[in-house]
Design brief:
Structural class: alpha+beta
Membrane topology: Multi-pass membrane protein
Number of strands: 6
Order of helices and strands: HEEEEEEHHHHHHH
Oligomer: single chain
Protein name: Ubiquinol oxidase
CATH architecture of the largest domain: Up-down Bundle
Number of helices: 8
Family: Belongs to the alternative oxidase family.
Subcellular location: Mitochondrion inner membrane
Distance between the termini: 79 Å
GO biological process, one term: alternative respiration
Length: about 350
């Protein structure tokens, strides 16, 4: 037993001697690229026991046989805004450092953002949407289409929406920029709720959705992009932000329950909400034409998202947003009609990309 203890101590000393330069060193962290044994990337982070805001520690070690094993000491690797990526190349024992000014966020998992450029070669600046998600709005759509309420549920849906218009007009009055912002925080909820419930239904029943999950989530994302656009031209006050939180919380839960009970009623409500949105944006355009609201240049995010021509203004943005709302009106009234026919949405192909 004593011989075993002595042998264990000797082995422990040798193990510590071999690993101590790696585990207890205060030098910079090194990431070894497995495919290129002679190349390492030196990331500007502190050593294992160095305290530094925004830094993290990780090291890749090459084991015998060319197998790479990752050892994680702390959080995933992330650089500060001012950190530089430093490449270190080793040749015949001589180290040569090549510094670059490119900032990056290194990932422990090897997941990095792809670099996308526009057609003219300039870098794509938006992370919330990609070039293949952009489009040119169809502004020729009929804005005056209206679904006349005939059934009892339709009338409830219609007058529910009409009753909500009065407090909205009273609160925002002619402040159409903030009104649009408030409208979009609500309009982006139904598509997400409907898509989520259809998604769960598809999983429970092991069946396809006919594309309606994607269509409804596409609607929600489009409405959210409306909000991101109007945030560039309006500055909501603190009580308006508080109102958004309250209204969104109430509306989300109310719409969730309504969709669970009657999808045809829920989609009809959204159809009438979109009709009201068309009316609101039409009034917005009238105020712009009268000069009561300054027709400022279109925000850069709107220029890229709707592929607007150079020199576009806020009026052009409101015009394409109104066209989007008209398309959402058609989709939701169509979905409600499918349910009124006693069928499920999956039985009719979803109008993906309709907006």
């Amino acid at each position: 037993m004593m011989m075993m203890n002595g042998s264990s101590k000797v082995m422990a000393r040798r193990l510590v001697k071999q690993l101590s330069p790696r585990l207890f060193s205060t030098t910079s962290t090194i990431l070894t690229v497995i495919n290129e044994p002679a190349t390492t990337i030196n990331v500007g982070c502190g050593g294992l026991f160095e305290s530094r805001t925004g830094g993290s520690m990780a090291e890749w070690m090459r084991m015998p046989g060319g197998v790479g094993v990752g050892v994680r000491y702390a959080s995933t690797l992330a650089l500060n805004k001012d950190d530089k990526v430093v490449k270190k190349q080793t040749t015949n024992g001589d180290a040569e450092k090549i510094e670059t000014t490119e900032t990056a966020i290194a990932s422990y998992w090897g997941v990095g953002p792809s670099k996308i450029t526009k057609e003219d070669g300039t870098e794509w600046k938006w992370h919330c949407f990609r070039p293949w998600e952009t489009y040119q709005a169809d502004t020729s759509i009929d804005l005056k289409k209206h679904h006349a309420p005939t059934t009892f549920l339709d009338k409830i849906a219609y007058w529910t929406v009409k009753s909500l218009r009065f407090p909205t007009d009273l609160f925002f009055q002619k402040r159409y920029g903030c009104r649009a912002m408030m409208l979009e925080t609500v309009a982006a909820v139904p598509g997400m709720v409907g898509g989520m419930l259809l998604h769960c239904k598809s999983l429970r029943r092991f069946e396809h959705s006919g594309g309606w999950i994607k269509a409804l989530l596409e609607e929600a994302e489009n409405e959210r992009m409306h909000l991101m656009t109007f945030m560039e031209v309006s500055n909501p006050r603190w009580y308006e932000r508080a109102l958004v939180i309250t209204v969104q919380g109430v509306f989300f839960n109310a719409y969730f329950l309504a969709y669970m009970v009657s999808p045809k009623f829920a989609h009809r409500v959204v159809g009438y909400l979109e009709e009201e949105a068309i009316h609101s944006y039409t009034e917005f355009l009238k105020e712009l034409d009268k000069g009561n609201i300054e027709n400022v240049p279109a925000p850069a995010i709107a220029m890229d998202y709707w592929r607007l021509p150079p020199g576009s203004t806020l009026r052009d943005v409101v015009t394409v947003v109104r066209a989007d709302e008209a398309h959402h009106r058609d989709v939701n009234h169509f979905a409600s009609d499918i349910h009124y026919q006693g069928r499920e949405l999956k039985e009719a192909p979803a109008p993906i990309g309709y907006h």
